[in-house]
Amino acid sequence: MAVVNAAQAAVKTVADPNAAYESLKDLWERCRAVCSGEQYVKDYDDMLDVFTFSNMLIPFSPSMTPDQYRFYKAEAELPGVTAQFAKMIVGGLLRKRPLLELPDSIPEEAYDWIMNEFGRDDSPITAFLDSALWEEVQTSRAWVFVDYPKINNPDQYSKDELKSFKPYPILQKAESIINWRVTSDAFGKSILDRVIVRGFKEEYNESEFHPTYVDTVWVHELVDGKYQIRMFQKNASTVNVPTVSGAIQNADIKTNRVQFDLKETYSNILANGEPLKIIPAWPLNGSIDLVEPMLSPIIDKEINLYNKVSRRNHLLYGAATYTPIIISDMVDEEFDNIVNSGLGSWIRLRQGDDAKVLETPTAALQDMDRAIVQSIEEMAKLGIRMLSPETEQSGVALEIRNAAQTAQLGTLNNKVSNTMAQVIIFMINWRYDLQLTTKDIEFSLSTDFNPVPIGADWLRLATEWYQQGLIPRSIWLILLKHNDLIPPDYNDEEAKQEINDDEMLMPKANEQSANQIGAENAA
């Protein structure tokens, strides 16, 4: 529990996080480490004080020396089950192309822009969603900001030329959003009033090849109902930043209490000539308030399994060696010569003392193996078993066992879809000077979770309903899209025109038309 007393609160600066952030930051880092694999976990433990027991690999006792712990960590083994499971979740949500439907009033190029040139580097929307979902699965705290290219002398461009400049999304990780504030507008609606982002800003002032990093704070806020950004920086820069497995970590903000100076204020931020009146930032799961990471129960189980497997490995190395005992009054030099001959580990007793042969810890190994099996079974109850289903279990049994997890993924799919619909609408309105709302578009991250019938019999029945005029063509096409019979971006009008222009289908079309005319004449 994060507790802040009055003395600490009095000296807090703009760069200090709120109490809610501090209560979950360690959990985010643990989840991120386990989801990133064994090397990340070990590098992360190197950054911590081992003997405060805040690291993931726990030493046997406080009497272990740092050298002994490093040797023990070299033997440690992270199973990596959660990492593969997290990748499977993201891959499952993105195995199909997202569904996007835009109104006819939007320029035709808008669909191609959103689907294929969504990112700042013109990367497709699936690339951005892959990074965003990976962050969301690890921390349940991914944020999406929308930025716009800086335009020098915008007056020299026409309105149509300005449309070539495209807004783009920016993904912010959990550790970067250190503070936020929510207020109510004139109608009593809750709005995001302030978001504070902290991280390192790269500068190439000292070297053209290697950047220096400046600890920077960006305050996104509404002032008199208008959006502005204030940038604060620490006076000192550095070339050494905390890095774990190639990823730069956020600044150490727990023991900060360092003065940050205001460097620049970006006000009068316009969109189509009008000041922005909202902060273009959205939590990906739709919740401004903090929530516990969705994988934290599984991650806690794997950390326990990590320690059990590592201790088993340590015992296994001990079982593979032998310990001779010498009972002698020989001098130290003679004893050292025997020890240095490389025959194994040694214990030296006093003259006249005695000891039995030291047995290998085979019994302890069996107990530890049983504990490991139990831990794996506990993880299986949480849904991990779907990674390697047992042959004697049917697909129905597995589906029932993972029903709760399927529901959780479906909920995540709906949350992300709703948030991304808001982001897409905001970007389209900013670029084309429109006033669309989320009711005007449809966006679905994964159609696998949509409640529609699946199977040939259902589709055949729906087709009969359509042919009999019981359901409209649009509903029938939605069913076909959701069951992968036609592409998500299928355009019905273009398809009808293509059918009419197809010479192979013309005789059939003429025959149907003649039959229809004959039936009308007979009537």
**What's the alpha carbon Rg, rounded to whole Å?**
31 Å
Q: What fraction strand?
A: 15-25%
Secondary structure: helix percent: 40-55%
Helix vs. strand class: alpha+beta
What does the largest sheet look like? 5 strands, antiparallel
Please provide a written account of the structure:
This protein is of the alpha+beta class. It has helices at 6-10, 19-36, 38-46, 66-75, 81-93, 109-116, 125-139, 159-162, 296-319, 332-339, 362-381, 395-401, 403-432, 456-467, 473-482, 492-501, 506-522; strands at 99-101, 143-147, 168-172, 177-184, 190-203, 212-223, 226-238, 243-244, 247-248, 261-266, 270-271, 274-275, 281-283, 325-327, 347-349, 442-444. The strands form six sheets. A five-stranded antiparallel β-sheet has the order 4-5-6-7-10, with no helix packed on it. It has a three-stranded antiparallel β-sheet with strand order 3-2-13, with helices on one face. A two-stranded antiparallel ribbon has the order 1-16. Strand 5 and strand 6 (212-223) form a beta hairpin. The longest helix is centred in the C-terminal third of the chain and has 30 residues, at 403-432. The radius of gyration is 31 Å and the shape is globular. The termini are far apart. Residues 393-400 have low confidence and may be disordered.
